[in-house]
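Protocol step 4 of 6: structure prediction from sequence.
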Amino acid sequence: MDVLLLFGRSAQPDFGVTEIATELGLTKAAVHRILTALRSRDLITVDPSTRRYALGHAAVALGRAYLARTDLRAMAAPELRRLGEQTGETATLSLRRGNTRLYVDQVVPEQELRMEVVLGVPYPLHAGSSSKAFLAFLDEAELEDYLSHGPLEQVTERTITDVAKLRREVASIRRKGYAMSLGERQPGASSLAAPVFDHDGHVVAVVSVAGPTVRFKADQPENVAALLEATARISEQLGYLARA
């Protein structure tokens, strides 16, 4: 199983016997026996010319079966609870629907003054941290298509509606890996959001943490770290391998 998992967790497409033995602290003879067993079930394949090994079609079928039954909401739920406990604020999960995104789950703190969101209501992809986290990680063609669809809706007086300014904001989010908002979707709310990536590196969801501006400081390093750790764990469950 360690040999099989080595292929799954590495960005390297194939391995030689010596590499596997060195990585896992096994003898070459043991690695040969293991690879032979895995090949017999098509979990591993070998290139006869290079004698390098890669995942076989049976392993791909296992991955597809796992992804097919994946419930993002259920998968993210423990991370939302943890994030809420770490920050003391509201943690949310959003999904994209075309040129909009919507909240599908939230964990609300037991505080008298707190943020709550309405689930299932669509919001434009430029208003608020969760929306901007989706927008920033679209491919260039999708981004240009969104920005060229006419005037951007002014959701609050702080919503970014200037295309040039929004482009700068998108570039900043891509560099940092997360988005922030101060009242851009809801007056009096501060929020921090980061994307969840699937095995192909596509953004499939966004997690955010939000609270009243008078209390929640979105740019505090501990809040940023807690959010990025949460999204990294969810992305890892979806097969995403972060690039060094």
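Step 5 (inspection) to follow. The CA atoms of residues 65 and 78 lie 22 Å apart.
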